[in-house]
Design goal:
Layout: H1 3-14, E1 17-21, H2 31-43, E2 48-51, H3 56-66, E3 73-76, E4 79-82, H4 84-92, H5 95-102
Parallel strand pairs: 1-2
Antiparallel strand pairs: 1-3, 3-4
Helix pairs in contact: 1-3, 2-4
Length: 110
Amino acid sequence: MSDVNSRITGIVGEADVVLFMKGTPLFPQCGFSSRAIAILDHCGVAYESVDVLQDMEIRQGIKGFSDWPTIPQLYVKGDFVGGSDIMMEMFEAGELQQLMDEKQVAKAES
């Protein structure tokens, strides 16, 4: 396993929900990342974010790690869920909240 894959595996394993995104939750740097944050906030779950713009190795490595070409990317309990379009489809169908509940994801602190 390459060094970047080891780093990503560590990051994904550290929190119930991890979003690899462009920017930060307070200052998303693209519309897709902004939408992903809004969805997670609406679900009311605790999550960690990784700003891929701050680390080019992670930015390129995450695409190979998940075999998914775009960012943002959502991981729940170590499993890749998808990008913002999949998040939106799952959210609208009630499937994302259901997944969070089934996986017993920690709730965000109010």
